[in-house]
Amino acid sequence: MPYVVKRTGFYALVAFIVLFSIFPFYYAILTSLKSGTALFQINYLPVDFSLGNYEGVLSNGVFPLNILNSVIVAVTVVAISLFLAVTAAYALSRINFVGRGLLLLTILAVSMFPQIAVLAGLFEMVRWAGLYNTLFSLVFAYMIFTLPFTVWVLTTFMRDLPVEIEEAAIVDGASPFTIVMRVFLPLMWPALVTTGLLAFIAAWNEFLFALTFVSNNSTRTVPVAIALLSGASEQEIPWGTIMAASVIVTVPLIVLVLIFQRKIISGLTAGGVKG
Amino acid sequence: MAEVEAGVPPTETAFRVKRDEPRMRSDLSRQRLRSAWIFLAPMLLVLALVAGWPLLKTIWFSLTDASLSDLAGAKFVGLRNYYEYVDYGDGTGEYFGLLFDPAWWNAVWNTVSYTAISVSIETGLGLVFALVLNAEFKGRAMVRAAVLIPWAIPTIVSAKMWAWMMNDQFGILNDMLMHVGLISSPVAWTANPETAMWAVIIVDVWKTTPFMALLILAGLQMVPGDVYEAAKIDGIHPVKVFFKVTLPLIRPAILVAVIFRALDALRVFDLIYVLTPNNTQTKSMSVFAQENLFQFDKFAYGSAASTLLFLVIAFITLFYIKVARLDLGGRGG
Fold it and tell me: What sections of the protein cross the membrane (chain B) (predicted)?
């Protein structure tokens, strides 16, 4: 008897966890498929199947542009931060020099920075450089959170690779840059995919800088565009459209996360837990 | 002139072998050292430009009378944005500045209580999730995948999703709670001053518990299986095993997860900005600073708030690292 009770209790807990995790997104999909007054009837199961909200949001002019902006910013941020981080991580993990520990601690400290603390100074810089209202301002600003994180994770990964792989190349007289590109890079694909994906998600989701440095509707990224979607009046919040837009920008992320599930978990924990 | 030992003919090779070996090695390490700094330079330059310089600039602006329209003409005014006593000349006077602004202290209180409550709930719930995910059962991989979904959803999207679910008239949350009998009439979750902060906490707990659970799970999986084996053979009650064995072993993982989450929660901006706009009950330090910087045209005052926020977070971090005796430095080097 107690075994049965325990088993049932355990699976009830599992069911609760799954429901807790997926119900809100399920409900967003369900809402996005409703049209007209059906929106204001509460249903737990799908009753309607109308793509009107999706057509509405995709044909409203700027939203497809916002998606494109987000893709451009996120991809550029990932490419630049990975390139800078791979070489830096090599220096931090394989070469002994004075002040290495302090440098790593500084990098970790920057990743904990409250973004608001640099907002005023960055804003002045962005305006001075003429980057206000451009995507460059975002690419530049996002380095503050993607770079420390990628450097940290790649350093941890590179440190754990055996010494032997480098020795042969050193004996052959290969330059450090060649060693990074020819010896380490081919071994690092798993770590690069993980950190790249995490950096992509962080850049895709960022809101504060995107809200501050861009004020032009067609230059905005997706999170700000969704936050500012509004109806004809204060009272008429277009929930159907908002949910359709939300589903559109979230589904690619969820697909990526599910495909790279294991790698993401190992990447997240590499950043946070002592191995 | 090189000194030559008696009896040993001074051949060229004898000299070269003696001198070249150490020089070759130090050449190599010097070359590696040089390339280390060449490799680090671009990254350090970008970090200095994107973090170091703007931080100094923000602190500088907090000591000036800068306004959004005239950043270049900012003049130094000392600590006036933080603290100022205005003497009215008739023996009375008034204090002004951030340190005497009740709206700022309200924001500090909101942020700190939000962080304390949500991180506590997330740690507890995350621990439960992690223990479940650590058990062997059919479909575990599926459950672990499901748990990642809230983490992957952008904060703005989760704020909007929950705003709709918490809608006072058409929200499904009120419908559920009324069916269960927990509430008798619909609640305006995000608008009602009493529930607004709880609305924010609910969304935050939903969104970040998976992150906590995964960090704690990583700690759990490092506990060697034979520990449990031994406890089982000794017939120790599972609850006792959990508190006496498991919890002390995963304590470092939990402490690190808590500091990561707390630092994130202390700078909360987007969730509160979107879920409960213009609500004094939930306004956080970051929202307060952003509003002053860009909406109220009090750029210097907003900079002062940003600077104080930075100091508050730095102070809490150092205090926590000291109290929890975290070994952050050892992990990287």
Answer: 33-56, 112-133, 145-165, 196-220, 241-263, 299-321
CB B60 within 8 A of CB B77: no
Is-contact B97 B82, C-beta < 8 A?
A: yes
Closest-CA residue of A relative to B305 is A117
- Our CA dihedral for A37, A38, A42, A46, rounded to 10 degrees, sits at -170
Q: Look up tokens 């109220």; give the residue.
A: B296
Nearest to A192 by CA among A90, A105, A68: A90
Q: What does the pLDDT look like over B155-203, one tens digit per residue?
A: 999 999 999 999 888 888 888 888 888 888 888 888 888 889 999 999 9
State which amino acid sits at residue A21.
Answer: S
Please provide the average confidence, as pLDDT, over all residues in chain A.
86
Looking at beta carbons, which residues of chain A come within 8 Å of B51? Answer: 110, 113, 118, 144
Q: Cβ of A269 and B218 within 8 Å? A: yes
CB within 8 Å: B270 and A207: yes
Write down the pLDDT at residue B24: 58
Whole-angstrom distance, CA of residue A76 vs CA of residue B197: 37
Q: Domain spanning B106-296 has what CATH number?
A: 1.10.3720.10
* B151 HSE (CA, 13 A, CB side): 24
Burial class (CB in 10 A: 0-12, 13-18, 19+), B69: exposed
Query: Does one domain contain both A220 and A120?
Result: yes
Assess whether A1 and A78 both reside in one domain. Answer: no
State whether ipTM is beyond 0.90.
no
Is A246 close to B160, i.e. CB distance below 8 A? Answer: yes
Does A92 share its domain with A118? Answer: yes
Determine which helix (DSSP H) or strand (DSSP E) holds A49, and give its type and residue range. Answer: none
Question: A151: which chain B residues are within 8 Å (Cβ-Cβ)?
Answer: 43
* Token digits of residue B93: 């006077």
Rounded to 5 degrees, φ, ψ at B94 are: -140, 145
Identity (one letter) of the amino acid at B195? T
pLDDT digits (tens, 9 = 90+) for A181-197: 888 888 888 888 888 98
Containing domain of residue A29, as a range?
Answer: 1-50
Contact assessment for residue B111 and residue B269, using Cβ atoms and an 8 Å cutoff: no
Q: Would you state the pLDDT for residue A95?
A: 84
Q: DSSP string spanning B82-145?
A: T-EEEE-SSS-EEEESGGG-HHHHHHHHHHHHHHHHHHHHHHHHHHHHHHHHHS--TTHHHHHH
Q: Distance between CA atoms of B56 and B36, rounded to whole angstroms? A: 27
- DSSP codes joined into one string, B143-162: HHHHHHHHHHS-HHHHHHHH
Instruction: Give the helix ranges, DSSP H, for A135-228.
Output: 135-159, 164-171, 176-178, 189-205, 208-213, 222-228
